[in-house]
Amino acid sequence: MRILMFGWEFPPHISGGLGTACFGMTQALARAGAEIIFVLPRADRGGANDFLRLASASGALINEEMALRMDEAAQNAWRESIRFLSVDSPIFPYLTPESYAQSVEWLRQQGETYRRRQSGRSFTYELSGGYGPDLMGEVRRYSRLAAAIALRESFDVIHVHDWMTYPAGMLVKALTGKPLVAHIHATEFDRSGENINEQVAGMERAGLMSADRVVAVSHLTRKTVVERYGVPAQKVSVVHNAVARHEVERRYVVPPRIRHEKRVLFLGRVTFQKGPEYFMESARLVLRKMPNVRFFMAGSGDMLPMLIRRAGQLRIGNRFHFAGFLRGEEVDRMFALSDLYVMPSVSEPFGITPLEAMLYDVPVLLSRQSGVSEVLKHALKADFWDTRDMADKICAVLRYPCLAAELVKNCRQEMKSIRWENVAVQLMAIYRDVTGGCQ
Amino acid sequence: MPALCLCFDVHEAYRLRKYTVFDIGQNSVYEDDDRNCDALIAIARSCYLPMTDLLLKLIRRHKKAFKCSFAISGTALDQFEQYAPEVIDGFKALAATGCVEFVSGPSAYSLAFLYSEQEFERQVKEHSLRLKGIFGKKPLAFRNTEFMYSNELAQALKALGFKAILAEGAEHVLGWRSPNYVYTAPGLAEPRLLLRNMLLSEDVSIRFSNRGWSGWPLTTEKFAGWCSGADDADIINLYWDYHAFGMRHDKESGILDFMEAFPAAMLADKRFSFMTPSEAAKKIEPKGEVDVLDLVSWRDNERDLTMWLGNDMQKDAVHALYALDGRVRALGDAGLIHDYERLQTAEHFSNISTKWFTGYLADRSNPFESPYDAYITYMNVLADFEMRLAAAEKAASKKKTAGGRARPPKKKTDAQQKK
Questions:
Q1: Spatial CB neighbours of B236, under 8 Å, sequence gap ≥ 6
Q2: Is A380 in the B-facing interface, judged by CB distances under 8 Å?
Q3: Shortest Cα–Cα distance, B360 to chain A (Å)
Q4: Structurally, how many domains does chain B consist of?
Q5: DSSP B47
Q6: Which residue from B342, B347, B345 is spatially nearest to B307, judged by alpha carbons?
Q7: Are residues B21 and A289, on separate chains, in Cβ contact within 8 Å?
Q8: How far is A56 from B32, CA to CA, in rounded Å?
Q9: What pTM did the predictor assign?
């Protein structure tokens, strides 16, 4: 089985859970016998590995004949459903009005943000990857380049991850007639609440509708997709994410000076979706009952300045610390030194970080509005808005050592079944299904 | 001449309300009154009232040849009195027929026997007295919480004057022996041991409505056939959770029809007769001794105590509770003793069980979303209870020392006066 996979992130170039998920998934799929060509916007900066072929869309050559066929196919595949803005418009999945203004300014100064290179009768584009201000333009160019790669390769299934790659998937499906599997890791409604970006949502809907099968990362996401986009329910399968179990390389010893304290961690983007303000409100409530606790907020985002001001306002600044955006070893250390990990997300399609926290034997408290709470029985759960309930549970974990111990013990057991290998088995079944049983 | 000894276990636990760390020291209302009331009224309608009526009808129909017994917990009686007094009237009517025996137990359906001799004794005496007050007869038979039993229980109950103990006839206790005889504990002529016939009992109480079971549908003829298949049995002890009749197996399952036809089907065979537990203890000679070193219960496949004490959270909770035992009784405050008793009910600990799939029967499900929530709530409640206890102790000792301080000045004045 050869899979042509379109993704926007892949380690080491990650900015969120999407890259991590794609890595774990493809690795397990390769072990299950799938041959994968993974097309990234840009793959020239490392990231080579032995289980799949990383292809860089950037720089792929498009010849005239291809361009003609593509234009024709794009007419049919995209016309009704997808409207690319003809002017450069800054689109970023996690954009706010302030940063939008900055991005527009940046675009104006930058002028032409991409180069179209001519070589003989063929041409190509340079892509920058990531989530730059001209994301929509990048998506459009990526689609054409990815299609060019598709026309040269042979494969059985197209598998696309999140809306940035959906237009490419649709285009390739129209060009080759191969079945399309659309994986949805997050919907526009998760990212933006009710203030959705219509253009992104339109692309998401179009991709999901034209896919032969939709894979949602949780029942929560499946519900969103069915209710908000009207995707036929029987077409949507749920395949929960997993976590790659790597041995924790280093043991971190709690420094003696802070041994008498308890530490509670929030780690994620400091944005509306992740519910950081509910974490702070719970912290305030906990500190009224247990003054000997420290709270850490690791991550950056648009709500950070507001929350820093709020911490001062509440006079809890000496107990509530902002660790900024952490990388690599810092993340490991942060997890290892925490007594509890809290994920108060307002809307979380899946949420891999709690599973990572569990690798360090840290008990977790999850919002019920998260996909990961569907697979974790042995975690504490609360509604994100119920800060008293959350505070109650935080106090209990810190106060009763046997509660934390029991949670960790049972979670460790539970983690054994949350594996990418199982995900691969489910995906292989879906591939077989959409290809009509071909091997 | 096999005797049939029926005992219905009647128990209702009080569910705790969502009691958070912010309630500690602020208010001491622990129970979810609305929920307890709704649940009890629902169960009274579907099970208690119709089933009790049916039993009364059966006793009258068979002119007292049909007999049975009830083991009603104190918390169940509390809930009946509080929410559905007509249920008690039904039991009183049964008591008046003289064919129904009432079996004693620890009033709070507690694990007190494991942790506090004095508290166990206090609860048993209190409950026996209460049963005598309501039903007019001093109980002579005993069933411990969840039919828990070991040799030591027999010792303790002998001292309290009981004639019969109802316990689980667990395979790992009986070995090759049959539960269908009367036994005694090692070295004790009394009380007599009446061990439950696990298989036949659970055919009715657990499996009756299970369509996947090879015995389904269970008819009275089929069941009577199985009973008479127990060759030269002296006694067949059938102990059933009362919930089975109308609640666990609903009316549509035909469980009440089964029960209605059951006595006639058994009595048609002249060898069978119905006996109450203390009657059986008196009339049937024991066949030997059964040595039970570790506690057994009637729950789960293991028939042990792991449902209540299987993980560290459960042990922590139960130890934290009984650590207060001496202090509560020494103080003797009626309000605190009442709450202390309620906090001992076995469900508080089984709700913390992490045996997710095996433990719960649908009609006795965990009211909490997870065992962790159950543990957190229970520990919060216990923290508040301990604070109240400490405050009451302080107040009591103040009274004492205040009295003590008041005297010396008096003496002084006496002395001064003398001068």
A1: B2, B3, B4, B5, B180, B197, B200, B227, B230
A2: yes
A3: 16
A4: 1
A5: I
A6: B347
A7: yes
A8: 62
A9: 0.86
**Two tokens, residue A183:** 């994986």
Partner-chain contact A400 B313, CB within 8 Å: yes
- Please tell me which of A94-98, A125-129, A205-209, A433-437 the model is most confident about, judged by mean pLDDT: A205-209
* Phi, psi dihedral angles at B184 (to 5 degrees): -130, 165
pLDDT single digits (tens) A276-325: 999 999 999 999 999 999 999 999 888 999 999 999 999 999 999 999 98
What does the pLDDT look like over A10-64, one tens digit per residue? 877 666 678 888 988 999 999 999 999 999 888 765 556 778 888 888 878 888 8
Instruction: Count the neighbouring beta carbons within 10 Å of the beta carbon of residue A416.
Output: 8
CATH class held by domain A256-415: alpha beta
Angle at which helix A401-415 crosses helix A387-399, to 10 degrees, equals 100
Instruction: Say whether A391 and B22 touch across the interface (CB within 8 A).
Output: yes
Extract the tokens encoding A358. 């569990």
Count the neighbouring beta carbons within 10 Å of the beta carbon of residue A88.
18
Distance CA A437, CA B414 (A): 108
Which of B12, B146, B341, B347 is catalytic? The answer is B146
Q: Which DSSP symbol is given to A91?
A: B
| Predicted local distance difference test score (pLDDT) of residue A65 | 81
Check residues B156 and B300 and name the one with the higher pLDDT: B156
Instruction: Please say whether the beta carbons of B311 and B352 come within 8 A.
Output: yes
Chain-centroid distance of CA B117 in Å reads 17
The answer, for B376 touching chain A at a CB cutoff of 8 Å, is yes
Q: Which residue on chain B is closest to A398 by alpha carbon?
A: B376
Question: What is the CATH classification number for the domain harbouring B342?
Answer: 3.20.110.20
Q: Do B354 and A391 touch (CB under 8 A)?
A: no
| Helical residues (DSSP H) of B12-161, grouped into ranges | 33-43, 49-61, 74-83, 85-96, 112-115, 117-135, 151-159
> Are A434 and A213 spatial neighbours (Cβ–Cβ below 8 Å)?
yes
Disruptive mutation site among A388, A406, A408, A410 for chain B (greatest number of B CBs within 10 Å): A406
Active-site annotation holds for B146: yes
Q: Where are the domains of chain A?
A: 2-242+420-434, 256-415
DSSP A364: E
B193 is written with which tokens?
């041991």
* Separation between Cα atoms, residue A349 and residue A368, nearest integer Å: 11
Alpha carbon B91 to its chain centroid, in Å, reads 16
Superfamily of domain covering A2-242+420-434: Glycogen Phosphorylase B; (3.40.50.2000)
Q: Which contacts qualify for A69-76: CB closer than 8 Å, 24 or more apart?
A: A69/A151, A69/A175, A70/A144, A70/A147, A70/A148, A70/A171, A70/A175, A73/A147, A73/A171, A73/A174, A73/A175, A74/A143, A74/A171, A74/A174, A76/A174
Interface size between A and B, measured as CB pairs under 8 A = 53
DSSP string, A296-355: EEE---TTHHHHHHHHHHTT-TTTEEEEES--HHHHHHHHHT-SEEEE--SSBS--SHHH
Among candidates A218, A18, A13, which has minimal Cα distance to A127? A13
- Closest B-chain CA to A407: B372
Give dist(CA A282, CA B20) in Å, integer: 13
- Catalogue the E-assigned strands of A177-319: 180-184, 213-216, 236-238, 262-267, 293-298
Report the C-alpha gap between B180 and B227 in whole angstroms: 10
Range of the domain at B140: 1-419
- The complex's ipTM works out to 0.81
* Measured distance CA(A106)–CA(A122) in Å, rounded: 30
- The radius of gyration of chain B from alpha carbons, rounded to an integer in Å, stands at 24
Chain B touched by A306 (CB under 8 Å): no
The residue length of chain A stands at 439
Q: Say if CB A172 and CB A147 are below 8 A apart.
A: yes
From chain B, pick out residues whose CB is under 8 angstroms from the CB of A406. 311-313, 354, 372
Please report residues of B whose CB lies closer than 8 A to that of A285. 22
